[in-house]
Amino acid sequence: MSRPLSDADLARFKERVCDVAAALFAERGAENVSMRQIAAALEVSPMTPYRYFASREEILTAVRIRGFETFAARLEAAHADTPGDGTAKAVAMGRAYIGFALANAHTYRLMFGLTQQDDAADGPLGRAVARARATLSVIGDRLIARGIPEAEARATEGLIWSALHGAVGLELAGTMPPGSAQDTLTLLARTLGRAG
């Protein structure tokens, strides 16, 4: 007779499900992946994933929550652990952004390449999305503190985020060579430094 699963066993298996599902979702498109395919990739019976998740959509939500939480934590740590002025902190956050995206390409694409109904809701996914977005607002906050009008500061923040996201996406797609996102960050840092 097999022993009952501990909380740690359950958590580990759920992580495995999320890892496998993230790769399948990114490779085939989330809408083209079934619970049966996830089970096959895990080499378990077709019903096993249902013991942990009610649906494919619930797995997708779990993958995206985990991604947003890890992403936000890395950006927050880069900001908190970097001495110096706001530009140095912003550059460190940019490096953390690029590092996360390149190391977690499947999850990154799911985080920013699609939306779910709960993205803006007051639930676990909505809070994870909001936390990740808040980490990116420190650039605009810094510009506002330096006397730049809020509308301009937020537009600059959006421009920087868009440029970095675009460069990362192009590098992940192989359209731009390795190191292109870092080169873009270097240019953005010069622009941000001149803004002050």
Assembly category: single chain
The helix count comes to 9
Order of helices and strands: HHHHHHHHH
Total strand segments = 0
What is the CATH T-level topology of the domain at 59-195? Tetracycline Repressor, domain 2
CATH homologous superfamily label of the domain at 59-195: Tetracycline Repressor, domain 2
- Give the CATH class of the domain at 59-195: Mainly Alpha
N-C termini distance: 68 Å
Structure explained in plain terms:
Helices cover 73% and strands 0% of the residues. With 196 residues, the chain is mostly helical. The chain has a domain at 59-195: Tetracycline Repressor, domain 2 (Orthogonal Bundle). Helix 1 (7-28) crosses helix 3 (56-81) and helix 8 (150-173) packs antiparallel against helix 9. The protein is elongated.
